[in-house]
Amino acid sequence: MTVSYRGRRPSVSHNLMEKQASTRQLKVAREIQKDLAEIIRAKGMAIFGGALVTVSEVRVSPDLSVAKVFVSIFPSDKQPAVMEWFQENNKALRGELGHVVAKQFRIVPELIFLLDTTLDYAEHIEELLKK
What we know:
Blueprint: H1 12-16, H2 23-43, E1 52-60, E2 66-74, H3 79-88, H4 90-100, E3 110-115, H5 118-130
Parallel strand pairs: 2-3
Antiparallel strand pairs: 1-2
């Protein structure tokens, strides 16, 4: 059996890499990041036990139905409790986001909260460089 390729041959590395986000995905992600950050800021630090919570990045799926929200939490010892709060209040946060972006989006994406560990990684690298 022979396989003929028209145009460019598929590359194995191309299939393993994540596709580049479209302009629409980037715009939606920026809007969600901005609005979620404002919602979290309005709730105040007291609700998170004094932890500083930052929405560091949002990635939206190509069909705009799912948004992965990366949050950075300082100090890092409060990360488990804050992430648990996000999981418990996911629907309420999506509802609040829906009220804010109702005129811009037809569908409010499902929110998946993930921990952004880049600060911890940078701190670890700094410690290694000091040695």
